[in-house]
Design a protein that fits this description.
By secondary structure, the protein is α/β, with parallel strands linked by helices. Helix content is about 35%, strand content about 20%. The protein is built from nine helices and 14 strands. The strands form four sheets. The protein has an eight-stranded mixed β-sheet, with helices on both faces. The relative contact order is 0.17.
């Protein structure tokens, strides 16, 4: 049995998890959880034993000096708790770590043990994949679940994905088999500018999490960082005609795909978010999952000072042809 010390009784707790690695293109998902921990001053109360789950030749420990004393930080997964105030206060159990190298079933069982002991009512797992999506358009976010009832009640897609998966997909299925409601939120990151950070994708994940949990997340400087990121990528693309032409092709494909829904519903969602904020006041190492379940890396450069040149991945196999929406890794 897992014994938790120093953790108060929680109010309507939800577990929010993200893992660096294959499920975390542009570090968008892990940065989102780090943002929640920082803004709400989360306190770490538990860490999984690194010896059980990590290959230290893949994820190496780091050495640092602390007051003249040499110390080691081991790659692991840590849990913290934050309390969200407001009219309806609730607690979030934040899980942030690195995709484990081994013993995934034991890893998931240990996390579910914490969830059970803390009375977690819902698990939300954040992920990010590489897709054929232009950086100039809103970041596609797909919300999926294996539970048909949860899909209906929370307006999510019931996952139909088949293919290679990462710890996000494994943890979601472990939750389903344990009878714990679980949801995955996936951001589609442009494959031609996949190196971290990607504050625009992080911001999109947090906005979707706000809608899902009906809470307000303080965003700090993230909106400004997202704008600066897009301006920077715009400038790089403008300097290379090949990249600019490719981005235009992606824009046209995206706009054509979204035209039918010309999106009264999307506009309404954005307006509701604006009203909530106004009324509330106040302020990788290796490849990543792609929309077709494969693996992609950061865009290629010819040399230290040269411009990005996108690699063209195979088109994702999805029902509607939109690589960012329903073909995420589950």
């Amino acid at each position: 049995m897992i014994e938790l010390e120093g953790v108060p009784e929680l109010i309507d707790p939800v577990m929010v998890a993200a893992f660096e690695g294959w499920n975390d293109a542009g570090d968008a998902a892990s940065t989102a959880v780090a943002h929640l921990e920082r803004e709400w001053k989360g306190e770490v109360f538990a860490a999984l034993d690194a010896e059980d789950y990590y290959d230290f030749q893949v994820n190496r420990p780091t050495v640092f000096m602390d007051g003249g004393v040499r110390k080691i930080t081991w790659p692991t997964t840590r849990l913290s708790v934050v309390r969200v105030g407001g009219e309806k206060p609730r607690d979030l159990v934040l899980v942030r770590g690195i995709e484990p190298s081994m013993r995934w079933r034991s890893f998931c069982n240990e996390l579910l043990g914490f969830a059970h002991e803390l009375g977690v009512e819902l698990v939300v797992i954040l992920g990010a994949l590489l897709g054929d999506t232009p950086h100039t358009r809103p970041v596609p976010i797909s919300g999926t679940t294996s539970d048909p009832d949860l899909a209906r009640s929370m307006d999510l897609e019931e996952t139909k994905y088949e293919g290679p998966t990462g710890i996000v997909g494994i943890l979601q299925e472990a939750c389903t088999h344990a009878g714990v409601p679980a949801v995955s939120l996936w951001a589609a990151v442009p494959h031609y500018v996949s190196q971290p950070p990607n504050p625009k994708a992080t911001l999109a994940l947090l906005n979707r999490l706000e809608d899902l949990l009906d809470l307000r997340i303080p965003l700090g400087e993230l909106p400004e960082d997202a704008r600066a990121w897009q301006v920077g990528v715009d400038q790089l693309a403008a300097e290379d005609s090949e990249v600019a032409e490719y981005v235009q092709t992606l824009e046209e494909a995206r706009d054509t795909a979204e035209l039918p829904e010309a999106s009264g519903e999307a506009i309404a969602r954005e307006f509701e978010r604006y009203l909530r904020r106004r009324d509330g006041g106040g302020p990788s190492s290796g490849g990543h999952a792609t929309a077709d379940g494969g693996e992609g890396g950061p865009y290629l450069r010819d040399g230290p000072g040269s411009r990005p040149r996108p690699s063209m991945p195979p088109k994702a196999e999805s029902d509607d042809g939109d690589a960012g929406n329903d073909s995420s890794d589950e």
